[in-house]
Amino acid sequence: MLTVEWSSEFGWERPHIKPFQNLSLHPGSSVLHYAVELFEGLKAFRGVDNKIRLFRPNLNMDRMYQSAVRATLPPSLGVKKPTKALLFVILSPVGPYFSSGTFNPVSLWAHPKYVRAWKGGTGDCKMGGNYGSSLFAQCEAMDNGCQQVLWLYGENNQITEVGTMNLFLYWINEDGEEELVTPPLDGIILPGVTRQSILDLALKWGEFKVSERYLTMDDLTTALEGSRVREMFGSGTACVVCPVSDILYKGETIHIPTMENGPKLASRILDKLNNIQYGREESDWTIIVS
Predict the structure, then answer these.
(1) Is the distance from CB of 274 to CB of 244 less than 8 angstroms?
(2) Which of 278, 265, 259 is nearest to 201 (CA)?
(3) pTM of whole model > 0.70?
(4) Could you read off the pLDDT of 107-157 as tens digits, one per residue?
(5) Dihedrals φ, ψ of 271, to 5°?
(6) Contact 15/89 with Cβ under 8 angstroms?
(7) DSSP single-letter state for residue 116
(8) Does residue 76 carry a pLDDT above 60?
(9) Measuring CA to CA, how many Å separate 241 from each of 67, 125, 227?
């Protein structure tokens, strides 16, 4: 693991690479009492050519900077700004994020009584408090036979995120256009690296409309009644792309025909990103580190 200490007196100190080990913290550390912390997650991919690549790490660093500013941690640096901080990096192998497998569809539980984030909060930052506070709702989703929470927001039940993933809907919109849509970065949505990559790919393909705009549960149910929904899927570093098959909402199970439609788009996006990440396709999105 890599560790770098920081203090308001001396700034960043010399980095150290050491064996994986426990951290030693003062019992009064702000991280334990006030959740003054942030984290990032990215993968290194061993490619078909045996080279190891990072995927768009600059976007992770940009997001980490914004989270640090919001948490009053360096570089921006009772409850007050910390005078000391520790940056550490740990490495481990990873497998499928969901126990169901790498590309099996998930079911979602949607209930407006729980909110993941709110305007003026920290929903657009990668902070542990956003995740710890979501566990109770996740447990209730599982008690209701679902695998993830579909987070809603506001009186009109805006669709925001799914579990710890960004959300995409591929449909025929109200104007009869083929469209890929995801909620906008309005302060309650995490600016996911995979989310941005999907938007970049779809815009480059130029085959259908690509939008960042609000969606509500009424929009979704109306589209389903009109057979206008093709695919719904989550995206994130851990899962890359995850199809959605069902939503439990207001006591009724709403079926999403993602798998019946291939899923052609979700599969195409997954294949494209995997090809880049594993070196089957050259791209300036990757950085070779070994």
Answers:
(1) no
(2) 265
(3) yes
(4) 999 999 999 999 999 999 999 999 888 999 999 999 999 999 999 999 999
(5) -65, -40
(6) no
(7) S
(8) no
(9) 24, 21, 23
Question: What tokens appear for 49 in the block?
Answer: 């050519």
Cβ neighbours, 10 Å, residue 161: 27
Strands (DSSP E) found in the chain: 2-7, 11-12, 16-17, 44-46, 52-55, 84-89, 106-110, 148-153, 158-162, 165-172, 178-182, 209-212, 229-236, 240-249, 252-255, 286-288
Tokens of 43: 């993968």
Q: How long is the chain?
A: 290
CB atoms within 10 A of CB 102: 14
Which of 47, 38, 43 shows the shortest CA–CA distance to 70? 38
Closest residue by Cα to residue 105 from 272, 277, 262: 262
Please give the Cα distance from 204 to 187 (Å, whole number).
26
Q: Residue 268 corresponds to which amino acid?
A: R
Token pair 């851990």: residue: 238
**CA proximity to 233, closest of 132, 287, 162:** 162
Q: How many helices and strands, by DSSP H and E, does the chain display?
A: 7, 16
